[in-house]
Design goal:
The structure holds two protein chains of two kinds.
Chain A: E1 2-3, H1 12-20, E2 31-37, E3 43-48, H2 59-79, H3 118-125, E4 142-144, E5 149-154, E6 160-165, H4 172-187, H5 202-216
Antiparallel strand pairs in A: 2-3, 2-6, 4-5, 5-6
Helix pairs in contact in A: 4-5
Chain B: H1 6-11, E1 40-41, H2 42-57, H3 63-88, H4 100-116, E2 122-125, E3 134-139, H5 161-173, E4 178-184, E5 198-204, H6 206-217
Antiparallel strand pairs in B: 2-3, 3-5, 4-5
Chain lengths: 218, 218
């Protein structure tokens, strides 16, 4: 016997998002489009859900958009400085290491260029505070314009999901999560899908279509 | 099966290849009647089945051959399940099915419940007078196809040929030699409701019908 399983644990950030947006629940909101970019920066999926939400651009422009975003994302990820993990035991030793005081220059493009930056000095001085590997830098996540909001979600394997929504759209994180679930189910478990190639899976189209329609009609 | 008996399995622990549990208890040591809590993850099955399809796809010349290979992968499972499921029946109904209808009911109820946790959706006899040897087992959404989207150029293919192979194994094991094939019928009038609807066409050998007629007279 086989049971359906899905590890949909409530994500802490998702929960706060839900709570934070309760008062906006009455606002009419729309998901305009979804783009999936593979880890090499190629466009592998592109679908518009809501006519008239965004202007139509050609397929070629979509390819350029995907490639450009991939590049911008890679650069913004490098801007992200490595944050030292706060260790309670470290406070006693701080006096001997002036370099480990909170760095006012956090956010500078090149932290190693700053003389008192904690990042380059720590591995040689206070071994132990970097025992756990920090999260990889995330890069650009949200881009907002007057008419739409674009949210990017990067999977652990480097595939990017771009969701274009109304600026008032609530719970984009949750929507993104469901889209990723569907991608994992109906694309990755499909024996006829070749990795990194354009997504052409009827089941994915169908399930995604009905899910987004449900959101847009709410 | 004889070459995989429990004695051999334990004695060959030092051989390379298969791994054995450290306590020496293999799957053959387990009681046959453990029916509860015998559930598996659908995701892990989906990935495994996806690899089976990919494996069967290697060096095949056509869809017919691919379905044949999937059928062959399922056949031994059906043969073994017939024995296993009959063993698990209460002692007074432990006999193997003796008529076509009893056999098909066994497949629809026992086999399906064991494999998929529910019964098959319908059982039909061919209405065509030219083919009295054809019966149909209908499943509205086969579990094996849950995440599979067949590409357009292979629209003839139905990966439930694997399940068809299992049915064929059960029929052959019960001395009702038959050919079983899986056909998608979702695109037709009821297609909107059940896009994955599959018919398993069971075509018995002429001698089965001959015997059935004799039993009917007696």
């Amino acid at each position: 016997m086989v049971r359906p399983d899905r590890q949909l644990q409530p994500h802490s950030s998702l929960q706060s998002n839900i709570i934070g947006n309760v008062n906006h629940a009455t606002v009419i909101s729309t998901v305009f489009a979804l783009i999936i970019i593979n880890k090499a920066g190629g466009l592998i999926y592109n679908r518009t859900f809501h006519e008239g939400g965004l202007n139509k651009i050609s397929t070629n422009d979509y390819l350029v958009l995907a490639g450009t975003f991939h590049g911008v994302h890679a650069i913004t990820a490098r801007l992200n400085p490595l944050k030292p993990i706060t260790n309670p035991n470290r406070t006693s030793t701080t006096s001997t290491f002036p370099s480990s005081t909170p760095n006012p220059n956090t956010g500078t493009p090149n932290p190693s260029a700053t003389p008192n930056s904690s990042v380059p000095s720590v591995p040689s001085t206070s071994g132990g505070s970097y025992l756990t590997r920090p999260d990889p830098p995330a890069g650009l996540e949200v881009l907002e314009t007057e008419n739409f909001r674009m949210q990017c979600f990067t999977t652990l394997t480097g595939t990017k999901f771009l969701l274009f929504t109304d600026t008032t759209q609530a719970n984009v994180d949750l929507t993104m999560r469901r889209v990723y679930d569907m991608y994992a189910d109906y694309v990755m478990k499909n024996p006829f899908y070749q990795l990194e190639m354009p997504v052409r899976c009827d089941m994915f189209e169908r399930k995604l279509g009905s899910y987004i329609r449900e959101i847009n009609n709410r | 099966m004889s070459h995989l008996g429990p004695g051999k399995a334990v004695s060959s622990k030092e051989q390379t290849g298969l791994r054995y549990p450290s306590n020496g208890k293999t799957i053959y040591h387990r009681p046959l009647n453990r029916t509860k809590t015998a559930e598996l993850s659908q995701s892990s099955f989906a990935y495994l089945f996806s690899e089976m399809v990919t494996y069967a796809q290697r060096r095949v010349t056509g869809i017919q051959e691919l379905e044949k290979r999937l059928n062959l992968q399922g056949h031994p499972i059906g043969l073994k399940l017939l024995d296993l499921l009959l063993t698990r029946e209460p002692p007074r109904s432990q006999t193997r099915p003796l008529t076509i209808i009893a056999l098909l009911h066994f497949i629809k109820i026992n086999l399906w419940t064991h494999l998929f946790g529910r019964q098959a959706d319908r059982l039909e006899k061919s209405s065509n007078p030219d083919t009295p040897d054809e019966y149909m087992i209908i499943d509205n959404e086969p579990l094996v196809n849950a995440y599979i989207s067949v590409p357009r150029e292979m629209s003839q293919l139905n990966c439930a040929a694997f399940v068809a192979g299992m049915i064929e194994g059960v029929c052959d094991g019960a001395m009702f030699p038959a050919r079983v094939t899986a056909h998608s019928v979702g695109g037709k009038e009821e297609g909107e409701m059940w896009p994955g609807k599959t018919v398993f066409l069971v075509k018995f050998q002429p001698e089965v019908l001959e015997r059935e007629a004799l039993i009917g007279k007696g």
